[in-house]
Amino acid sequence: MSRFASCALGERRFAALVDDDHVRPLRGIAELGFETPADVLAEPPLDDARLPLAEVTLRPVIPRPGKVLCVGLNYKAHVEEGVYDVPDYPVLFSKFPEALVGAGQPVLLPPESDAVDFEAELAFVIGGPVRRASGDAALAAVGGYTCANDVTMRDYQYRTHQWLPGKTWASSTPLGPFLVTPDEVGDPHALDISFELNGERMQSASTRLFIFDIPKLIATISEFVPLAPGDVVLTGTPSGVGFRRDPKVLLRDGDRMVVEIERVGRLENPVATE
C-alpha cells in the first residue's frame, strides 16, 4: 500500500513513505502538503534511512494545508437525524490549520464548551492544481485519502447561522494517520466507515451513501476558488453523532475515539481536558 505520513522525531520534521512498521524519510521534504503534489509522491525522493514507525510521532497528515474545506449534510440519514432539509447544493464550511492534530494526539476539550461531539469522515487531499474541473478530471485531482474526525462544539456551532465557531477550535480535528494514494484505495465511493467511542460502535455507514460525490464536491469548490496541492476536503459524516442521540453522548476527558475507513486506515485519538 502506498502510504505517506508527516512525522516528527525529536526536533526533526520530515515527510515519509510508510513501509510496513517502518518509515523512509523523503529527502529534503519536511512535511506533506504543497511541496508534495501527486507527481512527487509517484516517485518520492527516498532517504536511505529506515526508521521504526513506533519511534516517530505522527503529525496531522497535512500539517499546514493552504485550505481545509468541509462538507456538512452529505449523508441523508445524518440530515434526517438533525433539523435540516436534504440540500441540493453542498453545504460548505472551513477550518483553520490550528484545529488539526495527528493520530494518537489528544483532542482537547475547551472549558468554554459543554457539548463536544464526534464526526467520522473520509477526507481527501488535492494532488495538483485544479480550477473549474468536473467529472473524471475532478477525481483525477485527488492526491490521496485519509481519515478525519470533525470534532464539533455543538453549543458554539448553533450560536449563529454560520457553523465556523463550533468547527475549528484549536487541537480539535484529528487527521491521519496516513495519506493513502488513490490507486490503493480504489473507488472512494464504496468504502465502509465507522466510529467507535470507548469500544462502542456509534457510527457505521458507507461512502456509497454520499449525497454529493467527490467529483461534484471538487467541481463545486473549484468553481469559486482554485485548489492547490495539499488542500484538504472533509466529505461529511454519517448518522449516529452523539448530540442527536437520546440521551446525548458527548465527549469527556479520558474517552478513546476510533475512526476506521476501509482501505484508508484507522485513526485513534484520546480526549483530554484542555
Helix content: 10-25%
Uncertain regions spanning at least 5 consecutive residues? none
Radius of gyration: 18 Å
Provide a count of the helices. 7
Mean pLDDT: 97
Query: In terms of structural class, how would the helical and strand content be classed?
Result: mainly beta
Strand-residue proportion: 35-45%
Number of strands: 19
Distance between the termini: 36 Å
- Principal-axis shape: globular
Following the backbone from N to C, one meets helices and strands in this order, namely: EEEHEEEHEEEEEHEEHHEHEEHEEE
Major sheet: 12 strands, mixed
Protein architecture, described:
This protein has seven helices and 19 strands. The chain has 274 residues and is mainly beta. Strands 1, 2, 3, 4, 5, 6, 7, 8, 11, 12, 14 and 17 form a twelve-stranded mixed beta sheet that branches. The protein has a five-stranded mixed beta sheet with strand order 9-19-18-15-16, with no helix packed on it. Strands 10-13 form a two-stranded antiparallel ribbon. A hairpin with a 2-residue loop joins β2 and β3 (22-25).
